């Protein structure tokens, strides 16, 4: 669990706020995977919970909004890959890396606009991906904020040499295509 003093971090929550582009729910950062457009990083992340079920993946990525994509995903929870809790951080890292790779000008601008401040996803109740309000500070694992900070450093260190690779885990499959073998989305 981490503590973030309010005066030394930037937060995001609503996709319409100043740093809203950092949210996985933010529109305007589409991702193309092997001829299939995925509207948000959230939809890609949710779809990758179901590598063995392309039909569920399609329902998720064709959802009208990322919130609905997440809701549909939750509905099919019992079909989630069994190792999901062990691989979810690597999958999330991959999703935001691809988001940056394919939206390099726009997303890098939002990311770099955070300077060196801590990035925190402020939530009401999700102390895993974000952090909750504790008065003068936020408290949570803030996994998404931390992955975004890592990504910011990686990109800032080598803006012209920003390369990514698929996660080093089994079964990263999207609509029947193994993303570790077919790399044309990179
Ligand atoms: N719908 C929603 N409301 C919030 O307040 C949130 N903080 C989030 N978080 C995002 O949901 C994703 C994680 O989903 P799982 O719980 O692992 O299915 C991730 O993108 C969080 O940033 N969502």
Automatic annotation (TrEMBL):
Q: Which residues form a coiled coil?
A: none
**What CDD domains would the database entry show?**
NADAR
Q: Its domain of life? A: Bacteria
Pfam families, per database record:
NADAR
Residues in NADAR domain copies: 12-154
Q: Which reaction does it catalyse?
A: 5-amino-6-(5-phospho-D-ribosylamino)uracil + H2O = 5,6-diaminouracil + D-ribose 5-phosphate; 2,5-diamino-6-hydroxy-4-(5-phosphoribosylamino)-pyrimidine + H2O = 2,5,6-triamino-4-hydroxypyrimidine + D-ribose 5-phosphate
Q: What is this protein called?
A: NADAR family protein
Write down the species: Mucilaginibacter rigui
